[in-house]
UniProtKB/TrEMBL annotation:
GO terms for molecular function: heme binding. It is found in: Membrane. The lineage of its organism: Bacteria, Pseudomonadati, Bacteroidota, Sphingobacteriia, Sphingobacteriales. It comes from Pedobacter nyackensis. This is Cytochrome c-type biogenesis protein CcmE. GO terms for biological process: cytochrome complex assembly; protein-heme linkage.
């Protein structure tokens, strides 16, 4: 076999390996049921269950925000976020929670909100320290 053919085959094998590794680490949205089966971190998309309200007492514990969310399959779970209540949470259309499930409670480390605004239809990321990072990279601090 010629040297150029061997180099070509090695190059093709490396490219295929690279493409497989990219596909293996993609994060897709999960449900609460899927998150309950595995102790790793999941992205769960859903909607705030307004009928069950929310609980946030800044005087008692400013870093604990609780609410209920309905996932894409219709299952409602309690969510505990270890951070301040995001500004305009009540106006959000859709939520993406990043976190882990423990028993019947989902512990979110991040909350991404889709806010209905005719000027700003972007997801914003609310971090645990109260800063808000928008998709365009700008960071705002609401403390």
């Amino acid at each position: 076999m010629r040297k150029s053919a061997i180099i070509g085959l090695i190059t093709i094998a490396l490219c295929v390996g690279f493409l497989v590794s990219l596909n293996a680490d993609t994060n897709t949205y999960s449900t609460f049921s899927e998150a309950a089966k595995d102790p790793k971190e999941f992205h769960v998309m859903g909607y705030w269950e307004k009928s069950q309200g929310m609980h946030y007492d800044a005087l008692k514990d400013a870093n604990r925000f609780e609410f209920h969310m309905k996932d894409e399959k219709g299952k409602v779970n309690k969510v505990v976020y270890a951070g301040t209540k995001p500004q305009d949470f009540e106006r959000s259309e859709k939520l993406v929670l990043i976190g882990k499930m423990d028993k019947d409670t989902f512990y979110a480390s991040k909350i991404l909100m889709k806010c209905p605004s005719k000027y700003n239809n972007d997801l914003v990321e609310v971090k645990q320290d109260g800063t808000v990072e928008k998709q365009d990279g700008t960071v705002e601090n609401y403390k």
